[in-house]
Amino acid sequence: MPSLRPSPRWILLLITLVVLLYGVVYPNVDTIATSLHHDGHWSPANYLALLSQRLALEAVFTSIGVSVATVILCALVGIPLAFLFERYSFPGRNVFATLAALPLVLPPLVGTVAFIFLCGESGILARVVQRALHLQEPPWSLRGWGALLLFHTYTMYPFFYVLAGAGLRRIDAGLAEAGRSLGARPLRLLFKIVLPQLTPSLIAAGLLTFMTSMASFSAPLLFGGNVRVLTLEIFTARQRGDQPMALTETVILAAISLVALLLFQRYEGTRKFAAAAMKGAARRYRPLGTGSTRLLAFIVGVICSVGLALPVATLLLVSFARDGQWTTQTLPPAYTLANYSRILTQRSAGEVFLNSLSMSAIAALAALLWSFCVVTLSMTMKRRVSRRLLSLLVLVPWALPGTVVAVSIAEAYGEPSLLLGSFILVGTFWILPVIYFLRFMPLVVRALQASMEQIDPSLPEAAGSLGATWWQRFWRVTLPLAGPGAIAGTLLAFVIALGEYVASVLVFVPTNRPVSIAIASELRDFNLGSAAAYGVILMAMIALSMIVAARLERSASV
Amino acid sequence: MPLLVLHNLSKRYDLTPAVKDVSVEVERGEFFGLLGPSGCGKTTTLRMIAGLEKPDSGLINFEGRDITSLVPEARGFGMVFQNYALFPHLNVFENVAFGLRARHKPKSEIAERVALALDLVQLPGYEKRNVGELSGGQQQRIAIARAIAIEPALLLFDEPLSNLDVTLREETRGELRELVGRLGLTAVYVTHDQEEAFALCDRISVMSTGSILQTGSPRELYVHPAQVSVARFLGRNNLIRAMRLSAMKSELGEFKTLAGGHILRLPVRTAELPPLNQPCVLAIRPEQVLISKEKVEGENAFAATVQEIQFAGATSRLRLDANGLIIEAFVIGLAPGVVGDSCTVTLPPERIVLLKE
Amino acid sequence: MHLPRKERHAGDSRSQAGAGTLLLATLLITLLLVACSSGKQSATHHLLIYTPHGPDLLVHFVARYKAAHPETEVQVLDIGSRQILERIRAERNRPQGDLWWGAAHTTFQTAADDNLLATYRPTWADKVPASARDSQDRWYGTYETPEVIVYNSDGVTAAEAPRDWDDVLDPKWRDKILIRNPIPSDTMRVIFGAIIWRSIKDTGSPEKGYDWLRRLDTNVHEYTADGTFMMQKLARREGLISLWDMPDARLFKEQKGLPVAYNIPTSGTPVVTEGIAIVRGAPHEDEARRFYEFVTTTESLVQAAQKFYRMPVRTDIDRKQLPPWMNEPFTRLPLDWDVLRQQGDDWLRYWDTEIRGRGSRH
Fold this sequence. Notes:
heterotrimer, B: alpha+beta, Rossmann fold, CATH 2.40.50.140, 2 domains, 6-stranded mixed beta sheet, C: alpha/beta, D-Maltodextrin-Binding Protein, domain 2, 11 strands
């Protein structure tokens, strides 16, 4: 939309600047400033101290190593799955394709519980293997690099799966055909044509995975064993009460993520990509003709999907298991509905779900509206530097661990401040929606940006030539075309916010107590079954909202 | 022996047949056309020749070898796509060199052949350009250069000119014909544009709803369309529904038009005769219709009124009403008379074609 | 040409309608929520409690308190004790919470030193020993928790089970011990602290204590992230031995039905005092005092003992009303809590950097 008239553009600019100033710049400047203070003076002493500690340095490199390994593993799992489900048709394709995205919506706290019950050294799988092979000792332990990377891969490969799948749907199938007609064999085709065309999607996925992995805390805490990563060091420093060191390590963590962002963006800018498929060979799912390949794809699809759905099934199992009975058996020996009746009879159970739902919805919708501002603004920006700066600032909250976002907001708005006057955000209902918004809006912005960039610029222009004003063009043309992408991103933000824990626990108040706190509370009291029951209900709600969103998406993409 | 033989090719998508029993023979050095309206199965046929689709049944022979299930990359055919399918992440050189690299040609040879191919399409020195910077016509030429750089055994075109504007299209058409002829290549060319097919092709198969209706040189097809749909598809035609009157009296068949009740005589071979008292279709090209202002006696001549005159420069088109039978006629230069004039229409017997439905 | 355009049109308005519905629904939910929260404002008294106690105990006492004081709206923030400390620290300029119920007395003492707690002298102040209260009345002990050696009673017989701290270093427990990560855990900090303090007391240096931890490290199967997971893993026999507190071990054994048992170390065990305190500048201090007194009556303490395995600190309780196991005698390990509090971080840091996970390499 090159011909944006001044007035809407100024409004967009104003909204964007205000949100960035309040949500990103001000709280984080505070953090950086604190990290640069030592004994009341400006000094790099904290950084020097950190550099002199062998373990802190080790943590920095371990974090980078874990994240790079996570990105590689997620790519190795996610991309082939995307190919399998996007390119071929076989019985049950749709069901398995949906199941494959499941880990994305597994709520973090109960997700780890399910994972431990399934894959832990006394988990179902280990017990099955142990029984089958008559082993004295459990066949594996869920600790260290292997366990950490397994969990990271399981929870983060959907970034690759979903984004590469979307990318594959976009590429012009004719390019691959042209390559084949020129004599390129499948591997050459993959590496010279298809993967280069997928690059934007893969870069976006890689970046999200890298940042998520850098900021990952529960997984190294629970499965890391002796693997020391930065988030754990930050946690330890905070437990020690060493606030300056915690902040310094946080700044370093964020800096690494942002440097990665810059590197990725740099690469993204050097290549040209086909925007939209033209007429020609219509892409269709290639039916797997011969019996054996069809069967193979079906089997691979089944194995992957079942494997990926197992933790969810485990969660369901635990929610019906009688607490304390399940010790050395492979599966729980006794089942009960007591876990559900226990939480459903609590008055607070209804409240926590209502709280989580409304706060996530508020945050996700605000993120959607704001994303339109940012993306529209970014598309009208002439200078590349300012565009880069904008997308960098937008991504800062994603690059920070959830704890850090919560702490910086709480610190910045915990007392009367320059920006908010006498209004104190901390202690109100609104603090959680605000934090959810900040943490997850980068997802929405990214999703929307991807779909907006695909809109043929001649369409809004055509609308303009028909006399539509800027707002009309936006409502009647841009919004409906960008609809599916926007809905997908918003839904993702909504779903992740529903289960958010690490930031919530620091700043929630009784009026906005979210589900995750209720789950944590049950876990502290060893009520694993009740915690799982909360998780199952949460997942049912997530499934419901995904169905609703799928309806919306379908009607939006006529 | 023909270079390429398609034998009873069939292909369905889901349950709808896209191509039914297509059989074609293409000679070496021939420029062969597949002509038909969109959705007639011509592109699917071409894609099966390229190997991009697998036929459900039928055989494809090339140089006497069965290549039906050979993968496309092993066929060595060059293909030019409707949307050009240039690789957007590669520059012009890399695009043209793509097929050569896939064949692991030495660097020097690649450079030489890319330069030659770009020369041939009259875009020398464009190697370093990004394909996004090129105009439609230039992209088209790069796509052709990319296809001919691999010295294809067969060159396949999928409506390559349809995205160009009219003047550019006619210009490129001429160059393309000249280029293919000069390189001595065999080409299969898919188009829905009859004029383009006539201008380019040595022989053409006319396709409709997945089947080949008629194959022949452009002239044969134009003058002697075998079927109503071919006659209708190739240029304007007067299609006259009529009934055969009687048994053979002379070498001329005798028909009575359903509209207007005129008697038409035309030479018919006994074998082609439709049954008596059954409706059939006769066709005559508008430019073959004779008009005179005077009353004329003779075979197939009858009185008519001028209903409409369309002026088109070198020619004029007239709509004539002969007692309810509407006849279209082209005349060179200005039309004789004005709307409402009466005249005599003559349909020369040797110009009338009896069509199969 | 006209038809597709028409269809797209229909699509537009439908998606707009969909988005509109979504927006509307959210607004409604928000309104409802605001209405709900303003509905709560109608209560005349308010109380906000920060507590690490789990839902079982909370639901019981809050319900009882509400029955006694229906005019009070009790709100509870149930988070870990370390998180409470951080929160109160962050809110020091504008306190939100009124009462802090539950945490090790070391944590309370840290908060008291940071000037985060208000002074309040409960009616029963002279019924607790001096070691279980702050000398300036900023916190008082409620329950006491001796630390014990826990073992899986299916995997280990009572005869085999370690009886004293040093028994767990026996090579036969190699790779059989589960230890909760001590950095965020008061219980484990106290146990590790007691070991090191013993070394300081005997030799004047923590070296022998570190050595003990190093030997423990060789036997440790896993440092678990969390107490619940630790008990879970113990019950599922990922390890056989652990160090934890007595009331929890009892609770897991009797209420949750896990196959666990414990031994009180013969040489003596440190006893952590769980406390209660009023937040400095609490917005509802009177109400906080009322609740403070309510949960520390002898009646409440006996209930906590009977139902929730909490050993009361108050000395004026009829011991016959308590479960018999609470009356079993045991040796207390004397400990200098101030040293532990001040140097504990350094000890743990040393453990974290030099000992943890290195045992197998020695």
